[in-house]
Amino acid sequence: MTEMQQNKENQPNHLIHEKSPYLLQHAYNPVDWYPWSPEALMRAKTEDRPILLSIGYSTCHWCHVMERESFSDSEIAHLMNNHFVCIKLDREERPDLDQIYITAVSAIRGSAGWPLNVFLTPDLKPFYGGTYFPPKRRPGITSWQDILELLAKAWKDPSQRKKILNSADELDTLIRKHLVGDKTTSPMEAHLLEEAYQALEKRYDPAWGGFSPAPKFPSPPIQAFLFYFFNRASQKGSGGSQEGQQALDMALHTLKSMAEGGIYDSLGGGFHRYATDSRWRIPHFEKMLYDNAQLVLNYLTAFQITQNSFFKKIAEETLAWVDREMTYPKGGFYSAQDADSLPHTTKNGKGSTESVEKREGAFYVWTLPEIVEVLGEKEAALFSYHYGVLPAGNALEDPHGEFFGKNILFQAHTPKETSQRFQIPEESVTVILDAARNRLLEERDRRPRPHLDDKIITAWNGLMISAWALSYQVFKKASYLSRAKEAAEFIWKYLYDEKEKRLFRIWREGERKIPGMAEDYAAYIQGLLDTYEADFDIQWLHRASTLAQILIDIFFDREHGGFFMNPVSEQERTTRIKEIHDGVIPSAASTAALALFRLYRFTQNNAFLEAAEATVQSVVPTMRQSPIAAPLMLMAAEYLLGGSFQVIVAGNPKDPVTLRMLEVAHALYHPGKTLIVIDSQTSRMQWAKWLPFIPNIPLEDEKPMVYFCKDQTCSLPIETPEALRNILNSHKEPGSSEP
After folding, report:
1. Which of 498, 379, 511 is nearest to 437 (CA)?
2. Which one, of 642, 668, 543, lies nearest residue 595 by Cα?
3. Dist. CA 580–CA 619, nearest whole Å
4. Averaged confidence pLDDT in the chain
5. For residues 236 and 266, which has the higher predicted lDDT (pLDDT)?
6. pLDDT digits (tens, 9 = 90+) for 558-612
7. Torsion angle, CA of 133/134/136/142, rounded to 10 degrees?
8. How far apart are CA 548 and CA 594, in angstroms?
9. Rounded distance between C-alpha atoms, residue 289 and residue 291, angstroms
10. Rounded to an integer, what distance in angstroms lies between the CA atom of residue 312 and that of residue 308?
11. What is the DSSP letter of 638?
């Protein structure tokens, strides 16, 4: 039974007509919740009431706890309803509002997270906030009820209200200054890349990988930057190569430690959101689409560079999880799976029946008897040794008492160590473990499943489209390309309004809503470009160009450079903000700069180049102060620093030689590479509209040729896959002829 079903004795509030799973989880609370809407904002103005804005998302563990403890409590709801206009917001629907108000709470309290509870004046200026509050007072912790009573009383006291309004004005000024960003610009400086690498080296954990103490987040943009830095440094000679090798080692060790830790789902594939310990063993169990899309790309790149099948295995298992559990049948990908689920009962009825409340990680953890019941004593002994299963449980940390006696699977020993321990061949160990994982996965699938947030978010789908398209390029599995194309078509069909020339952010149950943010346009453009480089259908580039122009028209700051996160809204009084930091999700600015630089290499449209250059230059002052604030922006700067080039394949894409040429071009990691296929005279005419040198490239009927082009100057024809591989490996242009 869901929380919503349990609360249906209450009358529904204003959230009942929303599509967001998070908002619907609160639709039967006794709190008179509104969605963020003109109606709610007007009510606050008209009644001169403060706004209580509560922000979260549907797979957030502590959001569930506060919903259960406080928002379902009739006494607390009475306080909230009598003194505040209460608004619930899904941060995944409105990341711009989330960014504004999490910045405010961080300024007030020094840190912030979710649930995010913020008190605003009727003019939307924050004056107090926090994250989780217990319903009743605890030693050293102020209760939610206390907060409500104190703030309600202060608002009604004229002298106290004056202080509130003054502090709200000061905080609002601070937030605007922080979120609009530095208005100065500066040319890109190559030394910033080295400074970013050095900053990461200082933060690196040589024992377990990662770049922070616990809690540890995967941080895919950092891994992507380290791979890029390795590639760039390798071209500079011995000194650069030494730093580059260290960058590569840091990235590979981090990825290996993560995949061997409990943060990775060893049975079902895919990564949990973060680890609460330094060894990656104890995860916070929710799974996010955006994490897994980016991590597929990290592991894919690791495989391209090393050819180590371990990285391929992790990428493909993660893709299999997305395909199995996160894919909408008509195309598109769901957002997230919850950390919490109901405890289960084992076959013999001895499972966890002591509580009907959902528990963190209940779907994923195991007792030793449960494993023995499925595998039998002999196989369970080998499996338990390999995955660190202990009779008393293996959780290093359990602050909330949810893992007592339970085991979180992690690779405690290598296959070789397991082979030696049980005196059987390593190949046999692999076979036994594969079979055991499959049987345990079948058993796990009978358990109560975590909640699935099934809304489709354009930006996150853009990331996942890239993951499928690039995985197809490297692994050549047709189903991977199909997934990329189906999702790319779905977004275009259901989330793009061709008449209004607008992209939407959210789709769920047949309805699209929320105007697209800059990140939605930018990430989807990236996905379209990656899909083009997989199947070479020029329609993807036409669509990307259309969206890029809209992105610039709506979001580009023509005065100071860079991109605003959110569009102008006539109905709302919110600040237009810029987000330049690459966190767990790449910033709109970095993604837009990368997408526009790439698109310029395809189209030679100067508007794309100028917007991208101005965006990089707008972030340089921030990167001087914090070199690792925007690692993906440093990658975008490659296009300014002369590291990009085009590989043009002229020939029938079905020809065996052409296919081998494309296989070589796809297999090698080169972040500055643009891959173009000209397969007919018609295709050449289409490309000539964008690239003026294309008509001078001969198209032979019987002999595919490849040209390495840079700054509109192309090499002599490359005739064999081996020659192309040598050129790309050395990244040195062959003798050139100016067409």
Report:
1. 379
2. 543
3. 7
4. 92
5. 266
6. 999 999 999 987 666 677 899 899 999 999 999 999 999 999 999 999 999 999 9
7. -40
8. 12
9. 6
10. 7
11. G
- d(Cα 194, Cα 637) in Å, to the nearest integer? 13
> 3-180 — its CATH code?
3.40.30.10
Domains 3-180 and 644-739 share a fold: yes
How many Cβ atoms are within 10 Å of 176's Cβ, its own excluded?
14
Q: Would you give the distance in Å from CA 503 to the centre of its chain?
A: 19
Mean pLDDT lowest for which of 311-325, 407-421, 621-635? Answer: 621-635
Count of residues for the chain? 739
Q: Structure tokens of 235?
A: 């071209």
Distance CA 243, CA 233 (A): 7
Assign residue 413 a region: left if phi > 0, alpha if psi is -120 to 50, beta otherwise? beta
**Structure pTM?**
0.94
In which residue are the tokens 């090393």 written?
A: 306
Domain ranges of the chain: 3-180, 191-252+290-336, 340-449, 644-739
Q: What distances in angstroms separate CA 494 from CA 456, 463, 505, 510, one per listed residue?
A: 10, 17, 10, 8
The top-level CATH class assigned to 644-739 is alpha beta
Stretch 514-534: mean pLDDT, rounded? 98
Residue 555 to residue 531: CA distance in whole angstroms:
24
Token representation of residue 10: 């209450």
Query: Per the structure block, which two tokens stand in for 193?
Result: 């890349």
**What is the rounded distance in angstroms from the CA atom of residue 737 to the CA atom of residue 387?**
58
Confirm if 622 and 629 have CB atoms less than 8 A apart: yes
